[in-house]
Amino acid sequence: MAVIDPTMLMNIFLIGISGTLICLAVHFIPVGGAPAAMAQATGIGTGTVELAAGSGLVGLITSSYMYAYEPAASMTLVMAAGAMGAAIMLASTMLAGGYIYAYGVAVPFASAQVKKDPITRERQDIYVSKGTQGQGIPTICFVSGVVGSGLGGAGGGLIYFVLMGIYSPLIAASAAAVAGVFTMGVFYVNSVIPSYGVGGTIEGVHDPKFRRVVPKDVLTSFVVSIICGVIAIMITGGMS
Fold first, then answer.
1. Is the predicted pLDDT of residue 73 greater than 50, yes or no?
2. Which own/partner pairs from 213-220 qualify as long-range (CB within 8 Å, at least 24 positions apart)?
3. Into how many domains does the chain fold?
4. DSSP reduced 3-state for 120
5. pLDDT category of residue 220 using cuts at 50, 70 and 90
6. Do residues 187 and 52 touch, judged by C-beta distance below 8 A?
């Protein structure tokens, strides 16, 4: 009877966790899509896949930089580097978008999902323009987006760290490239899954849709990410 390597099982589990973090992150990010581009909804005027992959890939760059220049860096440091890079990227995006909304479109930042901003406690409903789902990027949306991108970046850092540990002994010269490409694939897979649950727009953690769709999306993401982890381990058979 074959003995299952506990390290292999742990690596698969960690990849499953990393993908789940990426999926969860998408629900925190204020996704406005086309309506936000016309200032008819809160959030950033693009979709879940672009925002998750964009912030996640920046997190991958910063986490891989940490791993490359600090080979002895712990998994926690690599994840922290990924989280920081992704959070800065999305915070910059939301800040730039905010300037456009405020000074280019001249709309107040207001959420249609809550009467008062959970952070500032300021009234929101009286500033929502008729016929819209809110506009701009209110404080709660901004904070939720930064937290979400941090989770996504940490997830990307985690999977990169795990894959580098798997591939480095086998293909030292190409390990970083293979781990990076595989991580990108997991990012895209786990950014597409929430797009079906979100179904257009989501403001962030305060949105009622968040509590409704997160459990199903996270479970789906964990299962899919576990499959990705199995594939990541299986392909090492052809590299050894």
1. yes
2. 213/27, 214/24, 214/27, 217/23, 217/24, 217/27, 217/193, 218/20, 218/23, 218/24, 220/23, 220/193
3. 1
4. coil
5. very high
6. yes
Range of the domain at 47: 16-220
Give SS3 for 100.
helix
Which token pair is 162? 């795990």
Structure tokens at 27: 């629900």
Report residue 121 as tokens.
Answer: 């406690």
Q: Tell me, rounded to whole angstroms, the distance of Cα 194 from its chain centroid.
A: 10
Looking at the predicted structure, is the pLDDT value of residue 226 above 80? yes
SS3 category, 134 = strand
Q: What is the pLDDT of residues 132-169, one digit of tens each?
A: 888 999 999 999 999 999 999 999 899 999 998 888 88
CA–CA separation, 78 and 14 (whole Å): 14
Cβ atoms 56, 148 nearer than 8 A: no
Tokens 């987006």 belong to which residue? 145
185 in a structural domain: yes
* 203-to-70, 138, 163, 238 alpha-carbon distances in Å: 37, 9, 33, 44
